[in-house]
Design the sequence.
């Protein structure tokens, strides 16, 4: 919301500076983003009148002007503007004037000088030269009533300031100068001055038939016919000035007046060319197959979700959004139909965005516009139209035709004074609360409750943000002043909650991944729908109702595709070694989840830890040969993260991973994640020269850790023994390790085994068809005595027997 300070002060003029006013508004919840002057500094520019114009003897495009600046001395000024003429009043920079910087960034000083042999004692200025606009087509022409010799900054009010306010969506009542003025009046106690006008006299009885068949779309439709207008008149300078300083460009008198009233009162209106309407108007929902060419030139398709204003032949307007081209007013328009309506916010919300544009009208209607002042606002715009565009003896005004079908019911809201004091943190007296409500124009009654006074408040017609008790508490604290609430620490019995030793924080997990040379990334939780199909085989993803971009339309169920996108981003910037991780939630459907403070019914949001490695294992160096990262490098990183927990890696399929080079990760019989190379299909589709290796694991599993446990350090030497087994190719190493670990846990003879690792695999001609040799190294040690050969042999024999019985293994010769 942008407006000029001078316009605001015509309605409410508190005794405070611009900066104090900006601070007051910001502290009341209307954040002032910027306060800037409407024009840059310049000096010695006055209103001048051109008395005489003659051709320059030495230049075809220059004129010699005699200019009166009110000092009694006529200035001789050389000017090349195409619109210069006798009798014209223009800004005149006299000798010594300092004008705003030009394209070179330096201030421009006006001096007496020679132009093609003729002395020039000043300069006549355009709007662009004074940095008032980009118009450089000629001199800035001033009204004939301008006083010759008056300081131009004072005449044009160029020391005025533009306020830009960042409004929250609930403050729709402040989308107008009047709305902001109401706030300032309430905050300062200054008297509010409403715009003054007198209702015009009705001279004809013409009305336009209107039918409202959609009361859930339109609650009130007000209009009147005005005939005999001159649409070619110029918009008054004072109105143009206020529009420009509010971010609106001048279009034509009728359109400007409509925009002016919208900015002044917050009431969007629409002006139809009466002769272009076929029959009467019908307010209804659209129909499938209908279309409309809008004022912006776009043709849009209409359906049952969009409200329209139609006549007997075609659609004329998108309800509450934008008018149609077919009934637009032009400079030839003489008769108009002026319309002001109340459109239900729910019926407008999202419609403009559906067509990929936004309008000032839709911005206001979807938040709520005052439904009680439609007639008064029609009278205001009528008075301006007649004043500016009216033709004496020809303009005729019809009666206001007001159709009320379905207006909002203002439900009273109860406020307990004790509840307000508890939330605000300080005691505010009942009289203070009543005074605040009165200043905000909130009608209320006071009752006695169990815990003190209870206020029954009825919101005014322009406030759509007051529905519950907390809304009223917000109003109290806004007007009371946030800065007046003392900053006191809360007093409450607190106890330190010590996390259990069996868990570690996600911060620790982040630090450990960083220690392993991974860098953290943060990605959007919403992704492309194709990613879900490719990497998660998810054809029914959770869709967003209002995505920030068309391609980011679904919630992700895996973090892997986001990391693949990060890899591509880095590769495009010539970075070939990438090690990244992300810790974030994924979004899954789960009918068992119920609504709670941290969950939404039907949806599960577990946290995952995902890491990816791509390119060389280490940066190129002399100490070791270069090689690309593989499955086992990332597996080692994951095992280091999980230590001292022992997990199992079992062959499994995952939509994102290579079917022969991936595994599922199990902990205590539960699948906690997946590890593997990217599927070749996706490597090719996403144009990756090398194959990335990634893991995705439940964050809860990485946060688990065993309690520290004492174990005796043996004084006796350890013994190593190797065991080479021949097994079928389909026997997994993990199955053999499981067999050994089970034997160790259940057989006292084998409990001297401290570590069992695979150190070799062989497949070749020395073995049978479909067989492989796996060599395991056993580290054996006892804490009580030195191991003897008979005990070692017994343990190794037991391990061999277990493998033979469970997995049909054979001792390799």
Sequence:
């Amino acid at each position: 919301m942008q407006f000029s300070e001078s316009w605001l002060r015509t309605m409410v003029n508190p005794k405070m500076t611009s900066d104090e006013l900006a601070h007051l508004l910001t502290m009341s919840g209307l954040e002032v983003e910027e306060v800037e002057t409407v024009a840059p500094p310049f000096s010695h520019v006055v209103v001048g009148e051109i008395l005489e114009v003659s051709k320059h003897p030495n230049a075809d495009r220059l004129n010699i002007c005699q200019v009166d600046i009110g000092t009694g001395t006529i200035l001789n000024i050389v000017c090349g503007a195409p619109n210069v003429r006798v009798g014209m009043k223009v800004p005149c920079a006299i000798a010594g004037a300092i004008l705003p910087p030009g394209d070179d960034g330096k201030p421009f000083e006006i001096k007496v000088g020679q132009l093609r042999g003729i002395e020039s004692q000043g300069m006549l200025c355009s709007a662009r030269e004074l940095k008032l606009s980009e118009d450089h087509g000629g001199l800035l022409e001033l009204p004939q009533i301008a006083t010759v010799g008056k300081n131009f900054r004072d005449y044009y009010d160029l020391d005025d300031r533009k306020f830009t306010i960042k409004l929250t969506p609930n403050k729709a009542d402040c989308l107008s100068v009047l709305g902001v003025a109401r706030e300032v009046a309430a905050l300062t106690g200054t008297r509010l001055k409403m715009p003054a006008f007198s209702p015009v006299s009705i001279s004809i009885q013409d009305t336009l038939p209107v039918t409202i068949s959609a009361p859930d779309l339109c609650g009130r439709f007000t209009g009147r016919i005005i005939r005999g207008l001159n649409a070619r008149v110029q918009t008054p300078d004072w109105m143009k000035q206020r529009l420009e300083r509010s971010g609106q460009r001048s279009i034509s008198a009728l359109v400007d007046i409509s925009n002016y009233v919208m900015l002044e009162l917050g009431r969007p209106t629409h002006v139809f060319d009466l002769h272009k309407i076929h029959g009467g108007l019908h307010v209804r929902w659209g129909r499938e197959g209908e279309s409309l060419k809008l004022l912006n030139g776009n043709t849009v398709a209409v359906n049952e979700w969009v409200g329209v204003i139609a006549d007997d032949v075609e659609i004329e307007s998108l309800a509450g959004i934008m008018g149609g081209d077919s009934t637009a007013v032009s400079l030839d328009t003489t008769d108009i139909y002026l319309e002001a309506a109340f459109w239900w916010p729910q019926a407008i919300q999202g419609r403009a965005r559906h067509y990929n544009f936004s309008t000032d009208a839709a911005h206001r209607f979807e938040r709520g516009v005052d439904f009680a002042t439609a007639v008064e606002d029609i009278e205001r715009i009528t008075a301006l139209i007649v004043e500016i565009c009216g033709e004496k003896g020809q303009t005729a005004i019809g009666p206001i035709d007001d159709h009320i079908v379905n207006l909002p019911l203002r439900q009273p809201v109860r406020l307990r004074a004790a509840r307000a004091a508890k939330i605000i943190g300080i005691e505010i007296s009942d009289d203070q609360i009543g005074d605040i409500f009165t200043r905000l124009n909130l009608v209320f009654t006071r009752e006695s409750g169990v815990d003190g006074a209870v206020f029954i408040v009825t919101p005014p017609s322009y406030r759509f943000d007051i529905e519950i008790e907390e809304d009223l508490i917000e109003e109290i604290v806004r007007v009371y002043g946030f800065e007046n609430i003392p900053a006191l620490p809360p007093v409450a019995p607190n106890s330190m909650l010590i996390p259990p030793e069996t868990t570690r924080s996600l911060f620790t997990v982040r630090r450990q991944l960083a220690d392993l040379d991974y860098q953290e990334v943060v990605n959007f939780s919403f992704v492309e729908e194709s990613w879900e199909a490719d990497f998660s085989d998810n054809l029914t993803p959770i869709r967003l109702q209002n995505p920030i971009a068309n391609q980011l339309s679904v919630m992700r169920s895996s973090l892997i595709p986001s990391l693949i996108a990060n890899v591509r981003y880095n590769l495009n910037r010539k970075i070939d070694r990438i090690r990244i991780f992300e810790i974030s939630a994924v979004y899954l459907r789960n009918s068992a989840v119920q609504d709670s403070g941290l969950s939404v019914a039907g949806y599960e949001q577990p946290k995952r830890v995902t890491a990816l490695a791509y390119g060389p294992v280490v940066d190129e160096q002399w100490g070791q040969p270069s090689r690309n990262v593989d499955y086992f490098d990332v597996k080692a990183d994951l095992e280091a993260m999980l230590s001292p927990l022992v997990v199992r890696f079992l062959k499994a399929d995952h939509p994102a991973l290579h079917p022969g080079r991936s595994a599922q990760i199990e902990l205590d019989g539960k699948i906690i994640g997946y590890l593997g190379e990217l599927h070749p299909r996706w490597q090719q589709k996403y144009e990756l020269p090398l194959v990335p290796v990634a893991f995705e694991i439940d964050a809860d599993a990485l946060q688990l850790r065993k309690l520290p446990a004492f174990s005796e350090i043996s004084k006796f030497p350890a013994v190593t023994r190797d065991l080479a087994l021949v097994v079928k190719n389909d026997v997994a190493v993990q199955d053999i390790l499981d067999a050994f670990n089970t034997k160790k846990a259940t057989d006292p003879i084998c409990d001297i085994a401290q570590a069992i690792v695979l150190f070799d695999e062989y497949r070749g001609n020395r073995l049978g068809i479909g067989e492989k040799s796996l060599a395991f190294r056993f580290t054996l040690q006892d804490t009580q005595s030195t191991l003897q050969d008979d005990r070692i042999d017994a343990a190794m024999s037991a391990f061999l027997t277990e493998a033979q019985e469970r997995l049909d293994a054979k001792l390799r010769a």
Observations:
- The radius of gyration is 40 Å.
